[in-house]
Amino acid sequence: MDNAELLTMLKLNLEVITDYMDAEAKAAKESELLQYLNAAREFITREGIDLEEDSLGDAQILVMYASWLYG
After folding, report:
1. What pLDDT score does 53 carry?
2. Burial class (CB in 10 A: 0-12, 13-18, 19+), 63
3. Is 46:63 a contact under the CB 8 Å cutoff?
4. Distance (Å, rounded) from C-alpha 22 to C-alpha 10?
5. pTM value?
């Protein structure tokens, strides 16, 4: 999955709504969430786990880890 799809999944998981935000605030929040996704991917990979791009299960694990980091 690409970052846009992962970002959507993460926003839904965290119940983050950016529709009411102006463009600058929305971009800042999405940038923050992407940092959590990138960190989660790095931490998972560091443990020796290979994530598959097209795996929904792997995408969900990545989102769950990023959510945990956010919380």
Report:
1. 87
2. buried
3. no
4. 20
5. 0.91
